[in-house]
Amino acid sequence: MSPEGKKLFNIIILGVSFMFIFTAFQSCGNIAQTVITNLNNTDFHGSGYTSMSIIYGVLSASNLISPSLVAVVGPQFSMVISGVFYSLYIAVFIQPATWAFYTASVLIGIAAAVLWTAQGNCLTENSDENTIGRNSGIFWALLQFSLIFGNLYIYLAWQGKTHISESDRRTVFIALTVISLVGTVLFFLIRKQEDTKAPGDDDSTNEILGESSSARNKMMRAVAAFKKSITLSFTKEMLLLSVTTAYTGLVLTFFSGVYGTCIGAVNRFGSEEKSLIGLSGIFIGVGEILGGGIFGLLSKKSRSGRNPVVMLGILVHFIAFYLIFFNMPNDAPIAPMEGTDQVAYMIPSKEVAMLCSFLLGLGDSCFNTQLLSILGFLYSEDSAPAFAIFKFVQSICAAVAYFYSNYFLLQWQLLIMVLVGFFGTITFFTVEWGAAAALAARGSDYSSI
User: Fold this and answer.
1) Domains and CATH numbers, the chain
2) CB neighbours of 262 closer than 8 A, spacing ≥ 6?
3) What are the boundaries of the signal sequence (predicted)?
4) Cβ atoms of 208 and 221 closer than 8 Å
């Protein structure tokens, strides 16, 4: 297999592995609160929302040390270990215990930081400035298939169910644990890239992510990775991209938690209101996959860079926010368990709700594929610290959004996303113009998004 073929193979395996792990994890997350509600009459007294707060909080803090861990262990083995902890979190639901549930929440927060830092490093190692856009799109599209499979299960298997039996719970979570482990094992298929640098070449990536077995050298690489993370955090480009990244964190919370809650709270949807949550997730996944495919696989046909894709993403999201504002009752995010009978500016429409789900996914793919692409381009030699900072900012904002979503009416949540999204788009444009200038200075063709 040619070197380019090997790199493409690695990207596909990376995407498929993430697809299996997050099919299991997202399915677990979507049904966790329903399962926990049925368990709270027993000795189990956990909360799915508290678990998510712990996960995102620990994830944010762990991104400060994840580059050092990846530097010592290596990206491939880092992803394998992280996948094992994802599987353990899911397995807790086979025989739930409150202490195990919250302990696993802490561990998966650490594992998630390491997993995404290693993913960014692996993506960059197997890409160059001409293929980073394509590879980001392929990875993102494969990852988002997890939304299709997980939510299709919810829509079909949980329709009309009001109580989850112990047998149902065990069967489901044993299956999800196995699926997660399959994705973890697939990481072993990623092939290592040969070192093409001369022995005397100065390569900061090798300094940070080299393969020396010396304990002293590993410690030096870990310290160097931590210092590099701090240094990169205060660069002009990273500060500007942090605003865009913050927006993706807010949107992540909205479409993965708040919007489904809104749909499930609208009593005018009738008996379909709960199953529509799963259908909404499917439409989000379709939008994510379509966006990843178009802006990744077809990226070489673009001659104008990343900015048009990000512009499309913000326009699509603004349309979605406008329709959601008109379609969803204002109190839907914080409605009581019995739901809400209020009406917004139109009679709630299932069709409009599903269209908005699709638009949320499509717009999100626009932002994330281009952020992965520009980070891989700008920080090809410091990919682990760069992607750790990306995940740190995104996770912090997701955690903040989860907190205020329990208190803010829908209109205020939408307004926050509009404002942050507007400024995030402007800051992305600024960085991209700088990247275009850098390419021009090197005499490269500006054709990769």
Assistant:
1) 1-190 (1.20.1250.20), 225-437 (1.20.1250.20)
2) 324, 328, 329, 332, 333, 410
3) none
4) yes
